[in-house]
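Researcher: Good morning. I'm working through a list of sequences from a screen, and I'd like to move beyond sequence-only analysis. For each chain I'm collecting a predicted structure so we can compare shapes side by side. This is the next one on the list. No need for commentary yet; just the structure.
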Amino acid sequence: MAKRFAAIEPAHQEFIQKQKVFFIASAAAGSRVNVSPKDAASLRVLDASRVAYLDQTGSGNETAAHLRADGRLTLMFCALEGAPLILRLYGRGSVLPRKSPEYAEMLASVFDGVEPLGARQLVVLDVDLVQTSCGYGVPMFDFSSERETLRRWAEAKGEEGIAAYWQAKNVVSIDGLPTGILDSLDAQPAVLDDIPPAAQEPTKIEL
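Model: Good morning. Structure tokens for this chain:
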């Protein structure tokens, strides 16, 4: 049976910190609903009502667009080993652009100043509801290893290549909503004027 909590309790934080992956869900009015998996190593519990994760470059930037337009965000964790459990964090999210003072401060204080190549932005969730449920239907999995593909891709692209990728693929959502990714760049090149929203179609990362 589902249980509701007003804040993240110590047992919830302990469960979150044991996970290898979590999932995010977001949407804006009239938009498609986005669901994405994230590496749990990128997430930090800031306090009983706030969490943050360091977002990596991907082929889309739906969450950022939805948070700018709407703000609702849900994070889900599920036990893939051990006792079954599903934990959801509901609330409103915000994005800290990579070049912002707030990003730099949180990176230094919460992530030990470690910024992987390809880091795109920080996403912060203000939690207003925690819900747990049984998770009996979730299969058991054995963790093998982290994937190195995204890191190798970012290293091959380099800073300039990643910035160009953001400009080409991450400026708007698949529904044409602005993501604010340009706030994470040092400048906004004029070449962006030549990239129409229609060109921002969902694509796979070229590896």
